[in-house]
Amino acid sequence: MNDKDLHSHHISQQFNSALDDVKTRMLEMGGIVEKQVADATTAFMNLDTGLAEEVNRGDELVNALEVAIDEECTIILARRQPAASDLRLILSISKVLSDLERMGDEAGKVADSAIKLAELGGLPRSVLEIRHIGDHVGAMVRNALDAFARFDSNMALQVAKEDRAVDLEYGTAMRSLVTYMMEDPRSISSVLQVLWALRSLERIGDHARNIAEHVIYLVKGADVRHADLDEMAATIKDSK
Question: Residue limits of the PhoU domain (predicted)?
Fold first, then answer.
């Protein structure tokens, strides 16, 4: 290997290492957010204000990671002028960072509702919807991150399908809680906290779907942000 080839080899190794680093750090940030979502759900169900406050304290770390990792992506773009596939990876990571940060914000809102509900005196009734939807979107977050780690577009499609199921569960829970409020007006303040927590969990599911869409873009090079599930499935099947 001559000096020129050796230099190119070193540059390539540095570039690959930088790409691996930002991907790894993004997935680590995802693990933190996944724990925030699970802890926020647990805090709400148990009215554990200490755990809820811990969720909120974690938001500063998530915000700092988003800024730091996004800065690394910007530096790579500026210095390396990556080819198409590597460019897709960097852009996808940057977009996932934004979705993860917003998930952390929504987990914080669930935690806030837990604290307010504890101050109001507790859950107005059994709200297993929170536990069920919280577990569901938690699994979506985990699977979306796994799909990214594995570059698995079929797993990403499954996450998108789960988002539709969460939307249906959310609609059913909302109707049930509104009916409960109408039957017992004394419960309105408490039930509103439940409704807002459910809304935040539903939004976390939306962001998990966004990550799934970024995976499909990364793997297939196709923008499926406004595609329905059948169109997404066709894209995965037909794209090279």
Answer: 27-113, 130-215
